[in-house]
Amino acid sequence: MIRIVTLAPYDAADLAWLGKTLYTAFGLGTEIAGERRPPASAELPGGRTDAEKLVQAAGAPRVVADDKILFLAAADLALPPGPLGEPPAWGFSQQGGERAVVSTRRLPARGSTEASVEAWRRRLARECIHFIGHLWELHHCYDPRCAMHPSWSPDLAPIPDAALCNFCREKSERKIRLAKT
Ligand SMILES: [Zn+2]
Ligand SMILES: [Zn+2]
């Protein structure tokens, strides 16, 4: 089960669409677990949010067994700088762990036309699949159509597919099966 905890207000129809898409990607049910207040302890001076602290400190329902928690936030997420400086953060995931966050901040404007809402939903779902994939120990994928392709890649389609390639899909299925036994 994937439990989605929102840290900002989102449209119920958008969340329902996301749940369906995550079910298609992973074969796991999704629960919309309600909205919580973002944890103050993750706030950085200047209004940004420490992504690692946020996933540690944010309130969430109690999980059982192989449940995963996905936080949806609107915050400007900060990651620790690497050798090339700070990577742009669409989200953060405890690789192989329980909790991940995706921020809607870098997404294209949702707008109100059918086409712009569809583009927004697909990009959101792609990022959610990506960071949940890391929870199942998936690594980045070379296929630009795969949700495990890096979020910052210039090869991403403007309206990307919200799905895993066959290789990543099979790997996630194996990991999910193992976690259940
Ligand atoms: Zn990644
Ligand atoms: Zn892949």
Protein topology:
Layout: E1 2-6, H1 12-26, E2 30-35, E3 49-50, H2 51-57, E4 68-73, E5 77-78, E6 91-93, E7 99-103, H3 114-135, H4 166-180
Parallel strand pairs: 1-2, 1-4, 3-5, 4-7
Antiparallel strand pairs: 6-7
One zinc ion binds next to helix 4.
Overview of the molecule:
With 181 residues, the protein is of the alpha/beta class. The chain has one domain: 3-Layer(aba) Sandwich (Collagenase (Catalytic Domain)). It has helices at 12-26, 51-57, 114-135, 166-180; strands at 2-6, 30-35, 49-50, 68-73, 77-78, 91-93, 99-103. The strands form 2 sheets. The protein has a 5-stranded mixed sheet, sandwiched between helices. The protein has a two-stranded parallel ribbon with strand order 3-5. The longest helix is centred in the C-terminal third of the chain and has 22 residues, at 114-135. The radius of gyration is 15 Å and the shape is globular. The relative contact order is 0.16.
What's the quick description here?
This protein is an alpha/beta fold and 181 residues long. The protein is 33% helix and 16% strand.
Question: Which features characterize this protein?
Answer:
five-stranded mixed beta sheet; binds zinc ion; Collagenase (Catalytic Domain); alpha/beta
